Amino acid sequence: MDWEPWLRKWSAEWISTAEPGELDPAVTREEWLGFAPASEDDVAAAEARLGVRLPPSYRQFLRCTNGWRDAGGFVWRLRDTTTVGWLRDLEPFWEEPWEDFVGADDGTCFSRGLLVSLEADAGILFLDPGDVDESGEWAAYSLFSWRAEPPARFASFTALMEDLYAEFHQMRKPAGETRDGWDAEVERARVAALAGDVGLAAGVLARAEDFGRERATLLRVQILLLSREWYEAGMLLGRLLHPSFLPAGFLTDPLFTEELLPYLFDDHLRGARQGRMSVLQGAMIGERPEIMSLISENEPRFSRPGEGFTYGNPEFDEPVRRARAAHQDDPDALWAAILAALPLWRPRTPDHIAPVALLADPVLAAAITPARGRELLTTPRHP
């Protein structure tokens, strides 16, 4: 990692999103979230005090800036060479509640950990000298008690900082080359998905989501639904409908009203039978008049499973309907007919990459196993 240009970019992006009075005057004056670099003597003194040589990426970071402000959304200050120290000495209370998640015969990452965060929102960042790779990098961890999740492990201090940078983008969405670069990657993933390269598309979209690109979520949820990864797809649909995330115009977009909404109503009916909360029920929590109106207006339309919507453009919808009528008791024949009709399918909108509406019909959904869903996704479709 070439720390200085990357951290300069991070600083400029953070400053561009800051509220009046939010920033330390020194940050505004110097356009820098960091501090003066640590000297080699400063780093050597810290290593002598700690009794270890620091891992390369963290050492290089300190030589660029001796500490850091605002790492991600929930870490306000990183330690410098005079304050970095062992977690067991500085904040020993973290180990007991979490040791079962990271236990080992030779101690835990907590008992060995080097605490690098100074101020955070009920959380810590630390490095583990007992988990070292071939290049000498120590594994890094982040842990926030309010997330109710085990510590998140990263391969190195660099990887940890990259994750915190993505978190900053997800929360503040600064303009600039990083955002524009990820938007270009999302478009590349969309084209790849339509070409059948679902593996490439899914990986790019997942990383773009880390950077808060809403379009990536809209594209990836279609892949997850047809891959029958219901839980994660439901989480993303819930996010898309959350008031803090809801993309502009989403509730009236044909991709939502004609593809995702029929599926959501079918999921709602299944949830009622299974005694679980549906995505739509979750979206109704709180004062959500737009969601209540959406449901009341469309409930008559989707009152009977598999009705009230089309499977896609007429050229695709018609042969699928014929196949359903002819093969509703023969899932194998029904699937073969769906696959044969796929070359006729066309996207409803630029962000439509797969015929998700098929899953809103229980008869068709039963014919689309996870393996068949992947087969559909890996079949090139009309751009």
Automatic annotation (TrEMBL):
- Report domain Knr4/Smi1-like positions: 37-163
Origin superkingdom = Bacteria
One of its Pfam families is: SMI1_KNR4
Protein name, per record: SMI1 / KNR4 family (SUKH-1)
